[in-house]
């Protein structure tokens, strides 16, 4: 649905890249390699987004990096829209509703880096988690959000890995 509002696929990919996780940053060549597109099309969209103040541009020696502008008045709104587009709100709601005593939910893998590859890797931390529910939930979420969801259940909290969506 969002792709009908934002008709530029490059712009949508950039918004996903930078707004799924506000710590994500990248440079022009890295984005061109990641997206498999020309630097010209990416530069054009980066200029539009920095001109609107949605992204910030930082000079690092001879390399220019881009990152989401967390001071922008629409930052949280854009982040919420991108997370809804990816289905992360539905995913979190389903996990917390019937998973058991969940302490932490962390996105790992490509999606934590802002790469929408069609798979969402999720690490769920807690005691006495309902691991029978996982198989059902994985299938159900795949139909709901049109992305494959891969779960990892752990007992200890995850540190320095991924993007924390929920923490008790």
UniProtKB/TrEMBL annotation:
Gene3D superfamilies: Winged helix-like DNA-binding domain superfamily/Winged helix DNA-binding domain. It comes from the Bacteria. InterPro entries: WH-like_DNA-bd_sf (IPR036388), WH_DNA-bd_sf (IPR036390). This is ArsR family transcriptional regulator.
């Amino acid at each position: 649905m969002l792709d009908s509002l934002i008709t530029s696929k490059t712009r949508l990919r950039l918004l996903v890249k930078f707004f799924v996780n506000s710590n994500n940053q990248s440079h022009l060549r890295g984005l061109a390699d990641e997206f498999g597109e020309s630097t010209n099309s990416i530069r054009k969209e980066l200029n539009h987004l920095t001109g609107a103040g949605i992204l910030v541009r930082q000079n690092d020696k001879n390399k220019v990096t881009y990152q989401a502008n967390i001071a922008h008045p629409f930052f949280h709104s854009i982040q919420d829209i991108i997370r809804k587009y990816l289905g992360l709100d539905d995913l979190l709601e389903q996990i917390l509703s019937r998973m058991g005593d969940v302490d932490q939910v962390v996105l790992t893998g490509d999606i934590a880096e802002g790469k929408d590859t069609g798979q969402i890797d999720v690490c769920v931390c807690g005691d006495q988690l309902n691991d029978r529910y996982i198989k059902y939930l994985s299938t159900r979420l795949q139909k709901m959000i049109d992305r494959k969801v891969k779960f990892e259940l752990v007992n200890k909290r995850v540190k320095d890995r991924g993007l924390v969506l929920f923490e008790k």
